[in-house]
Write a structure and sequence with these properties.
Number of domains: 1
CATH topology: Rossmann fold
CATH architecture: 3-Layer(aba) Sandwich
Order of helices and strands: EHHEHHEHEHEE
Radius of gyration: 13 Å
Shape: globular
Strand content: 15-25%
């Protein structure tokens, strides 16, 4: 089974686009384990104090938490875990996308039409 890491900005873009998360992931990469880091969860919980409708209960109920021993900024954790495990990251962060592709990694982005697209090197 494949794994997918979720970045906070990626989750927000999914929700705002009205993407059916389960269906879109299945269409994009098949059956997958969904992973979030503690840093991403902390970011999302902070954002949720001022922004409603993030559907975090859906994300949290469908994902597993993973920890990067080195810690640091959530983007750095996502980058290291993605490269280490060959998991794409759902993100809209341009810098993170560039880093992932530059190191042979991959990412998933939201496209028009409420779909996801896997970008690989």
């Amino acid at each position: 089974m494949a794994g997918v890491l979720v970045d906070s900005c990626g989750w927000i873009s999914l929700v705002e686009a009205g993407v059916n998360f389960d269906m879109a992931i299945a269409e994009t990469i098949g059956d997958a384990d969904i992973w979030i880091t503690k840093g991403v969860r902390k970011e999302l919980d902070m954002i949720a104090t001022t922004k409603r409708g993030l559907l975090l209960e859906i994300l949290y109920s469908r994902s597993k938490e993973v920890e990067d021993e080195r810690g640091g900024h959530p983007d750095d954790e996502l980058f290291r875990l993605s490269v280490l495990n060959s998991w794409p990251v759902i993100t809209v962060d341009k810098d993170l996308k560039r880093r992932l592709i530059g190191s042979g990694g991959s990412y998933i982005e939201v496209t028009s039409g409420k779909r996801l697209r896997l970008i690989e090197r």
